[in-house]
Design brief:
The protein is α+β, with helices and mostly antiparallel strands and about 210 residues long. About 25% of the residues lie in helices and about 20% in strands.
């Protein structure tokens, strides 16, 4: 059964898909996370053609996987190269598992603006994801995908670095969900490596 309240999503900022400009950044703001594959596709239509839109969609897909493995996995497949699915999904099962020391149900919340370990990774709404161009790692052309790999960073207060790398690509390569239209994620190990544990005095309340 689909939820009645529609997702409000907006994207701002400019990140060049061809020229590495370390001064560029962008944001995606949204009222809640998608609950179904169809909702995810609807959001993708609005933001998926922009590099930082793909980063936001990745965070959405990973949070959806935490809530429902089947729905989340389908969304992950829509937003990633075929080579960037199996290993991340394995790690996500650990992060969203039941191990008292390792589990991080708030892993994706840590990439939302205003979420910190001290406030239980409970951000204010609407949610905002901040993305910037990696200042050090320049864009690289991939012969395998016949397209340029863009190296970006998702900001977070859950890591001492303040940001984690996410590389994205738009390709016509057969078998990839990009279809020459959408940016998809080429690599993002920082998104599924553990964020700092939440404060004992500020529990995580979950995300809408």
């Amino acid at each position: 059964m689909e939820r009645e309240n529609l997702i409000e999503v907006s994207i701002s900022g400019t990140i060049s898909p061809t020229v590495h400009n370390p001064q560029q950044s962008g944001t995606v703001t949204f009222s809640r996370f998608p609950a179904t594959v169809e909702e995810f596709k609807q959001v993708r239509e609005q933001i998926g053609s922009e590099p930082h839109g793909a980063v936001a969609l990745q965070i959405m897909a990973y949070e959806m996987f935490r809530r429902d493995r089947a729905i989340g996995e389908e969304c992950i497949l829509l937003n990633n190269t075929t080579s960037n699915t199996r290993s991340p999904i394995g790690r996500l099962k650990e992060l969203f598992g039941n191990d008292a020391n390792y589990a991080r149900p708030y892993q994706m919340a840590a990439f939302l603006k205003g979420a910190t370990p001290q406030n239980g990774y409970n951000p204010s709404k609407p949610y905002t994801i901040e993305v910037r161009v990696n200042k050090v790692q320049t864009y690289q052309y991939s012969n395998d995908y016949q397209a340029t790999v863009l190296y970006l960073q998702a900001l977070t207060q859950g890591k001492s670095t303040g940001a984690e790398g996410v590389s994205v690509i738009k390709t016509h390569r057969p078998g990839e969900s990009s279809n020459g239209k959408y940016f998809i994620v080429f690599g993002c190990p920082g998104l599924y490596s553990s964020v700092q544990a939440v404060s004992f005095t500020a529990p995580f309340n979950g995300l809408d």
